[in-house]
Design a protein that fits this description.
By secondary structure, this protein is an alpha/beta fold. The chain is built from twelve helices and 17 strands. Strand 2 and strand 3 form a beta hairpin. The structure holds pyridoxal-5'-phosphate.
C-alpha cells in the first residue's frame, strides 16, 4: 500500500485530505518524494511560523532532544522556565499554564474563569459568553464554547454553561450578560469563522462590562497570536488586554504546545491539583518555542509581517475576481465574486500553491518568515487561478 492507501485504511476519516504526500520542506516550500513542489501559504494551519528548517529552531530542538526529551511536571527544567519567563515578559501576563494544543489552552481558560468566580462568589456564576461563529476547539467543552450550531451535533450531552452573542452586536451582548456570567471569550479575528475581525467598539464594550461586573475577559489567540497579525497578540491592535489569553499553533514552530496566560487578577486561581497535563511544557517543544519568540523579537520582524500582509492584500485586492480581503497581518481571508473557495484551493494545489478555506473564503496563513521571492511566486499562482 502507498502512503495515501495506508492512511485511508487505518486512520479514521475525520479530515478531507488533499491528494498529495508531503515528504520534506524548506522555508515556505514543501516537496513530495518525486520532487514536485508547493509554496506553502498555510503553515500547517498557522503552525510552522518560522517555515521549515529554520536554523535556530532546528538547532535548539535537536540539541534539546539529545540532552533530555521529557520530564514530568513533577520536576523543574530550564527550557520550560525560560519560555515561561520570556512569554510573560513579552506579553505582560503574570503566570501561565502549558498544555499541548489550542483546545487544551481554552479548556484551561474556561476552568480558570469558573474557579475564579467560584472562589469569589460561590456556586451558580459559571456561564461563559462566547460569540456566534466562533471556534474554540474539538474537545466536548470547547465544542460547546464554539458558537456554531454545526458543531453541536452527535456527541450529546454537551457541557452546559455557554451562551452565544452575535459578534459586534452590542445590544445582544447587553441582553445576554446577567449575574450568572463569569467570563466573555472571543477571538479578535474569527479564523475558522471566515477571517472576520471584531469591531473596536464591541471589544471596548466587552472590556468595559468585564471590568464593571468582575467577569474575566478571555481572548482566544490560538490562531491570531504569536506574531500572526503583525503584533505579538492581536489584542494590541485593539489597545486592550484580556485577563486571560490563550495561544498555541505558531508558538511551537511546528511542535505541539498550548498556553493559557493570566494577569495579576487571576494568575493564582489554578492551585496545586486543580489542573495538569502530562506532556504540557515539554522541554523539546519549549526549547523550540523560545526560538520562535526570539525570532519575533528581532528588530523589524513584526513590521515585516505587517508589511507582507499589506502587500498580499494590495496585490490580491486589485483582482476583478476578489470581492474583498479581510483579516490582519498575515491572517487573510479572500472573498470571491464567481468562483468557490474549494475550486480555488484545488486549482492552486494543481499549480503548486497550498491555501486554506474558511467558510466561503480562501484563507491564507503563510509562514511569518516567507521570503519576498516565495511571496511573489505564490501570489503569481493565486493571480493566475483567480483570473483564469
Ligand atoms: C481560534 C482557535 N481556537 C482553538 C483552536 C483549536 O486548536 P487545536 O486544534 O490546537 O486544539 C483553533 C484551531 O483552529 C482555533 O483557530
Amino acid at each position: 500500500m502507498n502512503t495515501m492507501e495506508q492512511t485511508d485504511a487505518h486512520i479514521m476519516s475525520t479530515y478531507g485530505r488533499n491528494p498529495i504526500v508531503i515528504d520534506e520542506g524548506s522555508g515556505a516550500v514543501f516537496r513530495d518524494a518525486d520532487g514536485r513542489t508547493w509554496i506553502d501559504f498555510t503553515s500547517g494551519i498557522g503552525v510552522n511560523s518560522l517555515g521549515c528548517g529554520n536554523a535556530a529552531w532546528t538547532e535548539a530542538v535537536c540539541t534539546q532532544v539529545r540532552k533530555l526529551q521529557h520530564t514530568s511536571n513533577l520536576y523543574y527544567h530550564a527550557p520550560q522556565a525560560e519560555l515561561a519567563e520570556k512569554l510573560c515578559a513579552m506579553s505582560g501576563y503574570k503566570k501561565l499554564f502549558f498544555g499541548n494544543s489550542g483546545a487544551e489552552a481554552n479548556e484551561c481558560a474556561i476552568k480558570l474563569a469558573r474557579k475564579y468566580s467560584f472562589d469569589k462568589y460561590g456556586q451558580g456564576r459559571n456561564t461563559i459568553i462566547t460569540l456566534v461563529n466562533s471556534f474554540h476547539g474539538r474537545t466536548l467543552t470547547t465544542l460547546a464554547a464554539t458558537g456554531q450550531e454545526v458543531f453541536h451535533n452527535y456527541f450529546f450531552p454537551f457541557p452546559e454553561g455557554f451562551r452565544y452573542v452575535k459578534a459586534n452586536d452590542i445590544d445582544d451582548l447587553h441582553d445576554k450578560v446577567d449575574s450568572s456570567v463569569c467570563a466573555i471569550m472571543l477571538e479578535y479575528v474569527q479564523g475558522e469563522g471566515g477571517v472576520m475581525p471584531l469591531e473596536q467598539a464591541f471589544v471596548d464594550e466587552v472590556r468595559r462590562l468585564c471590568d464593571t461586573y468582575d467577569m474575566l475577559m478571555i481572548a482566544d489567540e490560538v490562531q491570531t497570536g504569536i506574531g500572526r497579525t503583525g503584533k505579538l497578540f492581536a489584542g494590541e491592535h485593539y489597545h486592550t488586554r484580556a485577563d486571560v489569553t490563550t495561544a498555541a499553533k505558531g508558538l511551537g514552530g511546528g511542535l505541539p504546545i498550548g498556553v493559557c496566560l493570566a494577569n495579576e487578577k487571576c494568575a493564582d486561581v489554578l492551585t496545586k491539583g486543580t489542573h495538569g497535563s502530562t506532556f504540557g511544557g515539554n522541554p523539546v517543544v519549549c526549547a523550540g518555542a523560545v526560538k520562535v519568540l526570539e525570532a519575533l523579537e528581532a528588530p523589524g520582524m513584526l513590521e515585516s509581517i505587517s508589511e507582507k500582509g499589506r502587500y498580499l492584500r494590495e496585490r490580491l485586492g486589485s483582482l476583478k475576481e476578489v470581492a474583498g480581503v479581510s483579516g490582519l497581518g498575515m491572517m487573510l481571508g479572500i472573498s470571491l465574486r464567481t468562483k468557490t473557495a474549494a475550486d480555488v484551493l484545488n486549482a492552486c494545489l494543481e499549480k503548486g500553491l497550498l491555501v486554506l478555506t474558511a467558510k466561503d473564503r480562501v484563507r491564507l496563513l503563510p509562514p511569518l518568515t516567507l521570503t519576498q521571492a516565495e511571496l511573489d511566486f505564490g501570489i503569481s499562482i493565486l493571480c493566475n487561478v483567480l483570473e483564469g
